[in-house]
């Protein structure tokens, strides 16, 4: 079990972790959530003895990490997938860790098989992708068959098959009675993996409860109701009936109604009594992501804003008209079409000149020129040879003679 009591860490005048207390119990996957800069990585580093707390204590099984005998055999961790000597092969990297902790070499091959890296065991890790690096880091964490495991963003860079594998691995480790502490920003994945949540914001504890309890405490369920789109009077009739019954009705952008304060069965009865046909009556239960966003919206340090491109554009000159938007412009695969052509000249005023102007067609291929005749010494250079003429149609029988091509 991991236990933190009054854990605090300051860097100068900045407090990264502020009086944090929690417990991570065995037999369950505990998710560690929080916005960027909330202190999750700092907390994990203090658990592993990499950073000294300014105040408070954190213990694993009742002991600080540095006092654990042969700690790698009791605690496994993945904090940085790139913390590997790039010149070593995957097997040699794990073999070095095993020899430092008295772990037999056969265990190296076992964990390489668990994470699926047998085929690249002899390749240097500097050529590994992020997903392969994550697998190697997980293998290092499992090397000592520890009872306590910490993972910081373990699914970054993994493909869907790898994410599913990590999810099942975490659950199986917890089912064996181990303590599993996982930090992640993927709410959908954490909803499928974690049994318990610890949520922090700006270094302070915001929540310490089960996933279902967390969603119920930080979200408001509602019913989604839709009436025939061609009969707006039924929508108004239903809105009046629901409001009179004590419900709170809000219109949504797609024409449906969001109803709170009334059970689905009561909404159905009211619609039947008002003789209103329903196209939809469905419950909406908030996701972990919605509940998390609702709780942490006041603890986010780094927020993005709308890109106000209009403020960066140069003003139009006096009398100029704004450009007309082109359908599809800016979408993937869109290219500017060539200007309309009529005999090699634009048929309408455009960027290449007025109608009828002798302006070359920028999309036409260059006409090949005949090679110039070589000049003899002492003679003046001659001009370029005449371009070959376009083949003419055969002359009629009563024609005098063909026209001089020159």
TrEMBL record:
This is ATP-binding cassette domain-containing protein. Residues 309-406 are annotated as: Disordered. Residues 343-360, 373-399 have a biased composition (Low complexity). It comes from Streptomyces kebangsaanensis. One of its GO terms (molecular function) is ATP binding. Keywords: ATP-binding, Nucleotide-binding, Transport. PANTHER family: ABC TRANSPORTER, ATP-BINDING PROTEIN. Residues 315-326 have a biased composition (Pro residues). SMART domains: AAA. Belongs to the ABC transporter superfamily. It comes from the Bacteria. Residues 2-227 form the ABC transporter domain.
């Amino acid at each position: 079990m991991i236990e933190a009591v009054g854990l605090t860490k300051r860097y100068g005048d900045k407090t990264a972790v502020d009086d944090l207390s929690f417990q991570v119990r065995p037999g369950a996957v505990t998710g560690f959530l929080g916005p960027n800069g909330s202190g999750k990585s700092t907390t994990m580093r203090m658990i592993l003895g990499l950073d000294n707390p300014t105040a408070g204590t954190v213990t694993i099984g009742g002991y600080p990490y540095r006092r654990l005998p042969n700690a790698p055999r009791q605690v496994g961790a993945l904090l940085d997938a790139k913390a590997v000597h790039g010149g070593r092969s995957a097997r040699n990297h794990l073999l070095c860790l095993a020899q430092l902790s008295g772990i037999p070499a056969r265990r190296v091959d076992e964990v390489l098989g668990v994470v699926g890296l047998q085929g690249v065991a002899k390749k240097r890790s500097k050529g590994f992708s992020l997903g392969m690096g994550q697998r190697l880091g997980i293998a290092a964490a499992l090397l000592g068959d520890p009872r306590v495991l910490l993972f910081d963003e373990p699914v970054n860079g993994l493909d869907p098959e790898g994410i599913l594998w990590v999810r099942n691995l975490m659950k199986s480790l917890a089912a064996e009675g181990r303590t599993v502490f996982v930090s992640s920003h993927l709410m959908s994945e954490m909803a499928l993996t974690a049994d318990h949540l610890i949520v922090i914001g700006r270094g302070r504890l915001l929540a310490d409860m089960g996933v279902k309890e967390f969603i119920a405490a930080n979200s408001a369920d509602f019913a989604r109701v839709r009436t025939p789109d061609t009969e707006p009077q039924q929508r108004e009739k239903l809105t009046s009936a629901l409001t009179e019954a004590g419900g709170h009705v809000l219109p949504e952008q797609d024409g449906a109604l969001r109803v709170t304060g009334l059970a689905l069965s009561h909404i159905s009865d009211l619609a039947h009594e008002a003789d209103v046909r329903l196209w939809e009556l469905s419950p909406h239960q908030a996701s972990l992501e919605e509940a998390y966003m609702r709780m942490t919206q006041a603890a986010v340090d780094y927020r993005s804003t709308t890109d106000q491109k209009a403020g960066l554009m140069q003003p139009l000159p006096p009398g100029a008209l704004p450009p007309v938007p082109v359908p599809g412009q800016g979408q993937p695969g869109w290219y500017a079409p060539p200007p309309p052509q009529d005999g090699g000249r634009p048929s309408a005023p455009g960027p290449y000149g007025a109608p009828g102007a002798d302006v070359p067609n920028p999309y036409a291929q260059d006409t090949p020129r005949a090679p110039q005749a070589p000049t003899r010494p002492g003679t003046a250079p001659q001009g370029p040879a005449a371009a070959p003429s376009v083949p003419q149609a055969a002359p009629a029988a009563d024609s005098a003679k063909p026209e001089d091509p020159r």
